[in-house]
Amino acid sequence: MLLLVFQSETRITAPKRSEMSDEDFLSWLTSVGGTPAELLRNPDVLKLFLPSLRADLHVVENFRSDRPGAPFLSCPVTCFDGKQDVPHDLQAWKDVTSGDFTVKMLDGSHFYLKEPQNEKIILDYITKQLETTGMDYL
């Protein structure tokens, strides 16, 4: 089995962005990038999508998981993250596996997965892992 994690930290504490005022929330969305400015200036688009964005953030902000007392995976776990993104507690993911654990930091911020060079790095990594990892469970 191969487990690759493309997400933020295991949430222990985080600011409640989902509870920000509309003005602050839009300011934060603009600063994070990844959303075209013309969409963030369109009241009809905001009326349609802000509730969904807030709901998504609410789930992320409020999800809690106790660290396992013992690993529940035996496969290798690799976490990817953007070097210029806010720091995340990715090391907590090593507690879920008795297998190898690695963190790969890629150029970019929150939307590092959208960078073409990172797409190639990740696809090459996955391909290599699939070629060299035993697939006896299939």
TrEMBL record:
Residues 13-129 form the Thioesterase domain. Signal peptide: none annotated. Gene3D superfamilies: alpha/beta hydrolase. One of its GO terms (molecular function) is fatty acyl-[ACP] hydrolase activity. It is an enzyme of class 3 (hydrolase). InterPro entries: AB_hydrolase_fold, TEII, Thioesterase. GO terms for biological process: lipid biosynthetic process; monocarboxylic acid metabolic process. Its EC number is 3.1.2.14. It holds the Pfam family Thioesterase. Belongs to the thioesterase family. This is oleoyl-[acyl-carrier-protein] hydrolase.
